[in-house]
Amino acid sequence: MSRSFALLMLILVTSSRLWADYDPLLTTDVKTEQVDLTIKDGKRSREIPMRVYLPADKKAALVVLFSHGLGGNREGSAFLGKHWAMRGYVAVFLQHLGSDDSVWKDLPVAQRMEALKKAAGLKDFLLRVQDVPVVLDQLEVWNKDIAHPLAGRLDPKHVGMSGHSFGAVTTQAVSGQKYPIGKGFTDDRIHAAVIMSPSGPANGNTKQAFGNIKIPWMLLTGTKDSNPISGADAKTRLIVFPDLSPNSKYQLVLDNAEHSAFTERALPGETERRNPNHHRAMLAVTTAFWDAYLRENKDARQWLDSDAVRSVLDKDDQWHKK
Prior knowledge:
alpha/beta
């Protein structure tokens, strides 16, 4: 065996071991911090409540945002925020007033559906997509304010954006989706996006909407991911991925997962028994995605692009990449 061939084999074996050691579910026992804050947006006479999950390490950390679904709040999907913080990210969970739980919680049950449908319109969509840059601007201000709890804790230049349902619509808009008219809502500070329960464009032209996405996207849905308010179902969730521009795009379809699988509790009308491995799979693939495309961790990228992903999935879950 030649020395050059032996050296090549050593490099391959070493890199394989490094990849094999990568574990997106690994966390330490050190507790994270949690702080609730509110932004007062004077230009729009609007408040934006937030829950921020902070790593134990006080150094500046990469930021990932999360936008809740219709009728939710900043407290929802906490399992994601806690895990991302334990992995060293500052997880900022936004609450969008007007399409949050204030829409339905004080109404009689018979009136809630109509109120939620009304809150799912263009007015609240525009409020949501305008909330995101306001939050990013304010995080930069707080990061420089020595008297603020977030002072020096943030690296807001390379941001991850995520969301579920109406939050997925919000995430798609600020992460590169194109619209038939107008310049769109893309924020260039966002470098990667995780989209849970994605939605196709209103005009049905997926190639126009998603064919020129410039940053990595990860889509997550379920084989029973339907929403009676928007009319989206498991089939329509799948129309986004095929027309995404190539390179660094992923899709996970969880077997038997309903719309609430991305939250902590079932929604009215859902019948499937919740599968605890769904949350485990979400934590693994989203963490690896942030590590790969915000931290530029090569081992995380190799993990996503290899069969290692199957180790956290059930046999009937579907994993796609392009």
